[in-house]
Amino acid sequence: MFARIISSLRLSPIQVMAERTRQAVKKGDSVIDMTLGEPDFPTPEHVAEAAIRAIREGETRYTPINGTVKLREAIVDKFNRDNDIQSTIADISVGCGGKQVIYQAFLATLSAGDEVAMAVPYWASYSDIVSMNGGTFRPIMTSPDKGYALQAADLEAAITAKTKWFVLNSPSNPSGTAYDWNQLAEFAEVIRRNENKEFLILVDDIYEHILYDGRRFCTLAQVAPDLANRILTVNGVSKAYSMTGWRLGYACGPRPLIEAMTKVQMQINSHTSSITQAAAVAALTGPQDEVGRRCAVFERRRDFLLNEFSRIDGLSTPKPEGAFYLFPDVRVFVGRRKPSGEIIADDMALASYLLDSGVAAVPGSGFGMPGFLRLSYATSDENLHIAVQRMTHALNNLN
Hints:
Blueprint: H1 4-8, H2 13-26, E1 32-33, H3 45-56, H4 69-83, E2 92-95, H5 98-109, E3 115-120, H6 124-132, E4 136-141, H7 152-158, E5 163-169, H8 181-193, E6 200-204, H9 220-223, E7 231-236, E8 249-252, H10 255-266, H11 274-285, H12 289-309, E9 325-326, H13 347-356, E10 359-360, E11 362-363, E12 373-376, H14 381-396
Parallel strand pairs: 1-10, 3-4, 3-5, 5-6, 6-7
Antiparallel strand pairs: 2-8, 7-8, 9-12, 11-12
Helix pairs in contact: 3-11, 4-11, 5-6, 5-10, 7-8, 12-14
Cofactor: pyridoxal 5'-phosphate
Pfam family, one: Aminotran_1_2
Family: Belongs to the class-I pyridoxal-phosphate-dependent aminotransferase family.
């Protein structure tokens, strides 16, 4: 009855735990939700007003597939202003969230047997999107003792004659790992040495504006402009501007690839909501002060959690450099017993135990790294204080 690919697709571990959390709350349980990567701040007022104004002024008709000229001009300006990437509106793709942009890039390029290489841990959707489009996912392992940072030598070893894409997400979901100029330059050298392989590079910069400790953001097309004809730089408005539900992502890349992605989108959803596009213009061209202020809040929350988690015996938590997640190593707790006597068999069982204890987290196995957890601190300070108390009590009660 169903296509063969359906049986191989897994439910998103993020959405599974989020739904279990909703059901627990519906039953009346008190749960601090640390599952979803969704800022707890509202969409900025001037962005919301731009959407309302667009409705009132009748901007409710079809738009070009790749977005209004006004929006694409704003994106071109953003790439030039923030990233030193030169482009025109013909080099821009706009979709319903970064996920659709990524999906269309893979659908437009992958054939059976093509490999897509990326560092582990990785955002859960990447591997399934690769599989859905006939590709083969090729993970490149990292380690917590190096902050989950991909090493250039490991990238080189992962590239084969079948490599079609290398995916780079910085700052990373779920680890918060961010790469500086020198690290990106090392990756660029690896790519140049393998120029005969002719693979593409997808750079996911969705957490660009959530970077800590005074770091300056840089992206691969900025560091290595000579590789721009092979790089698709993906971004969006969901994280920086608290617009997750608005659904708008965008990308800049080689024109033939953008044109191929446009053909795909033409048959999927025509274009992103005209109202969302108007709001995105306001987000990208309006005042940016609030973005920095919110980043400072996330950094303070990160520091609070790192300090508190350091007090929990056995919990090892590398310091993230961006995004709003912690990805602690919890392997020491696997195999221990709950107060009931039941054994914690794996990270999914540990996440279930924590949910029963009033904290919702996502098991690391969903991100390619069993024995770890992802915790989003995109929630209130009050919630984080409660979550720390509950996690400390729950983990200390394992035998």
